[in-house]
Design a protein that fits this description.
Elements lengths: L4 H17 L7 H16 L5 E6 L15 E2 L6 E10 L1 H6 L5 E8 L10 E7 L13 H12 L7 E5 L5 H10 L2 E5 L3 H7 L9 E7 H14 L2 E8 L2 H9 L4 E2 L10 E3 L4 H4 L6 E6 L10 E2 L3 E10 L4 E10 L7
Parallel strand pairs: 1-3, 6-7, 6-8
Antiparallel strand pairs: 1-2, 3-4, 4-12, 5-8, 5-9, 9-11, 10-11, 12-14, 13-14, 14-15
Helix pairs in contact: 1-2, 6-7
This protein binds 7-O-phosphono-alpha-L-galacto-hept-2-ulopyranose.
């Protein structure tokens, strides 16, 4: 894959972010998602790749655009798999809350886990803690390992967790261990990336969020040298058999009351995003710990994006001043 593709993809997430950010705070998450999806598809189809959507807006019959299996790009170029979330955090956008992003990850065919639409228990850390944590350990053990790696007390660690009842036991365990917690209403892709950026103050992301977002986070963390471990967790038998159909090893055994149907074996970063040729692009829609949201100006808009390539380990932060008058896309 040509390294310039990464910069092509940031144009795609910028366009999706700008179009959906016009709907920030308007109370309509569906419209915001639709705007992002339309613009993402339009710009993606101008890129010289032979792309297939492997994580997208849903199955063909439930999503008119960017559905799983949809072919995107001009068709002239490398054969790649693409995972997208045109608007990660639709509700946050509708309510003008933090953490909304437009996101895209890609890699050679077969490199991205075709994660089913179910939940995933996640543990994400930055480079200093990579290889030193384990989802199979207790919360306390992981926090102690992180404390050692970062050379600071457990009490001084900050854990990001999604505020959901299903994460209540985890929250209790973190509190018992003594670490600090930042609860977020949405957006654990942003949360996972934040662990790799020391200025965010987030040391680790823990807890159950959506599975497709776990793959997107893995694609981003690769370039940083960070790590995410995840376990698919199933509410219904149907979710479990879907994962099994995708080649994931599953255990048909009740995990807890939230996930009575079972869980998968532990998945490592490389199971989620395989190999060393993964690219990731994200543009902020609303503000977050890693990226600023879109700001409109008298002549257009300013966006803030992140572009990474795992091959070189490059991480670019791109601030773009868009001028609508002269940019054909807008
Ligand atoms: C999770 C999380 C996402 O939505 O998918 C969440 O990973 C949905 O969880 O970052 P619930 O079903 O509990 O609402 C996000 O927060 C935004 O898409």
């Amino acid at each position: 894959m040509d390294r310039n593709l990464a910069l092509e993809f940031v144009r795609v997430t910028e366009a999706a972010a700008i179009s959906s950010s016009r709907l920030v705070g308007r109370g309509d998450s569906k419209e915001a998602d639709k705007a992002a999806t339309e613009f993402m598809r339009k710009t993606l189809n101008q890129v010289n790749v032979d792309g297939t959507i492997v994580i997208g807006e849903g199955e063909r019959d439930e999503a008119p655009m960017l559905y799983i299996g949809e072919k995107v790009g001009t068709g002239n170029g490398p054969k790649i798999d693409i995972a997208v979330d045109p608007l990660e955090c639709t509700d946050a956008t509708a309510k003008g809350r933090d953490n909304a992003l437009s996101v895209l990850a890609c890699g050679p065919s077969g490199s991205l886990l075709h994660a089913p639409d179910c939940y995933m228990d996640k543990l994400a850390v930055g480079a200093e803690c990579a290889g030193k944590v384990n989802l199979d350990w207790s919360v306390k053990e992981n926090l102690e390992a992180i404390s050692q790696a970062l050379e600071k007390e457990v009490d001084d660690l900050t854990v990001m967790v999604m505020e959901r009842d299903r994460n209540n036991d985890l929250i209790k365990e973190v509190r018992t261990a003594g670490a600090r917690i930042v609860l977020i209403l949405d957006g654990d892709v942003t949360g996972a990336i934040a662990t790799a950026l020391p200025h965010t103050g987030i040391d680790v992301l823990m807890g159950v969020g959506a599975a497709p977002e776990g793959v997107l986070a893995a694609a981003a963390l690769k370039a940083f040298g960070g790590e995410i471990q995840g376990r698919l967790v199933f509410r219904k038998e149907e979710e479990l058999s879907r994962a099994r159909g995708m080649g994931v090893d599953v255990i048909e055994e009740k995990l807890n009351n939230w996930f009575p149907a079972g869980y998968s074996r532990k998945l490592e970063t490389n199971d989620l995003a395989k190999g060393d040729n993964i690219m990731f692009a994200a543009t902020g829609v609303t503000n977050g710990p890693t990226l600023k949201g879109v700001r409109f100006t008298s002549r257009g808009a300013i966006t803030h994006s992140l572009v990474t390539r795992s091959k070189s380990g490059s991480v670019r932060e791109i601030r773009t001043d868009h001028r609508f008058e002269t940019d054909p896309i807008y």
